[in-house]
Amino acid sequence: MIYKLTIEAFAATPEVRAALERVREDRLLSKSKFTIVDGGLDTAPAYYADRPTPQLVIVEETSDDQTMLAHLAALAEVCVEGTRVVVIGSLNDIHVYRTLIQQGVSEYLVSPVSPREVVDAIASIFSDPSAPARGKVLAFYGARGGVGSSTIAQNVAWSLSRAIDDDVVLVDLDLAHGTAGLALNLDSKQTVGDILANPDRADQVLIERFLVRHDDHLQVLLSPADLGRMMTVEADALERVLELVRQLAPYVVLDLPHHWAGVIFTAPVPLVGSEYSSATIGMARPTIGRITLRPTRWR
């Protein structure tokens, strides 16, 4: 999930500030407003004396536990209801942790802290336990045409559906040159291009109507495969479609066109190297003849 949050962090040391700067660049927070302020926990109460607190406040404290609690009490007086607080401190003490949690702190992290620890803490705080489960994504793309990425994506989707004995969805996003329909002998008048052209209409019912079933477990969202239908794909539209598709199967396989460099790598919600892709496979030359199959546990 890509979080859209307002976050303000107070860093007292260069090390924590460097970690927070990397957190701010994390793609999980690509839609969030993330501000870093010089100064630790003692700076925060005065900072919020004349401005509202954001959804999340991250503060670093380098003093002892009693000083930390006094500073937190001062911060609590200026925090609006619903503000979450994460404290980064140097005290590695379970009693300190329990006391902070009892005081209403959402999470306590012991420094030195890694960017991944902070991102995981944010995800844990703002995750929705009632949200539907979302499938893992395997994304395939080729550096150029003819390297076999589509063939491998199709075969992985088919093999994976049998390996896990459960549903897998193959999404053919090569709108002009997609081959999934031809390779799997499928046809449909309704394609992923129609959904991407009208993303506001997309919901689970519509996605399920557009899916074409190949067998008991493999379903395919076909591309138009129409050379005369070159269209610009908006990242927000693609994000919405993928969120819906991921609720329909444990695994989603994406066949990405190589000419989508802007969407694949640099969009606000990139498909390569982001939380959307559990695994990304890129190919620069034909590789099918060199592939060795080994037994894999997918669960």
Q: What is the averaged pLDDT score?
A: 83
Shape: elongated
The CATH superfamily of the largest domain turns out to be P-loop containing nucleotide triphosphate hydrolases
User: So, CATH architecture of the largest domain?
Assistant: 3-Layer(aba) Sandwich
Query: How many structural domains can be distinguished in the coordinates?
Result: 2
Please give the largest β-sheet: 6 strands, mixed
SSE ordering: EHEHEHEHEHEHEHHHEEHEHE
**Number of helical regions:** 11
What is the CATH fold-level name of the largest domain?
A: Rossmann fold
Structural Rg: 23 Å
According to CATH, what is the class of the largest domain? Answer: Alpha Beta
Number of strands: 11
Secondary-structure-derived class: alpha/beta
- Through-space gap between termini: 21 Å
**What are the low-pLDDT stretches, counting only 5+ consecutive residues below 50?**
265-270, 272-276
**Helix share, percent:** 25-40%
* Order of adjacent strands in the largest pleated sheet: 8-9-7-10-6-11
Strand content: 15-25%
Describe the structure.
The protein is of the alpha/beta class and 299 residues long. The protein folds into two domains: 6-126, Rossmann fold (3-Layer(aba) Sandwich); 136-290, Rossmann fold. The chain has eleven helices and eleven strands. The chain has helices at residues 14-24, 44-47, 65-78, 94-102, 115-126, 149-164, 180-184, 192-197, 204-210, 235-245, 261-265; strands spanning 6-11, 33-38, 56-61, 84-89, 107-110, 136-142, 168-172, 212-213, 218-221, 251-256, 279-283. The strands form two sheets. Strands 8-9-7-10-6-11 form a six-stranded mixed sheet, with helices on both faces. Helix 1 packs across helix 5. The protein is elongated and about 70 Å long.
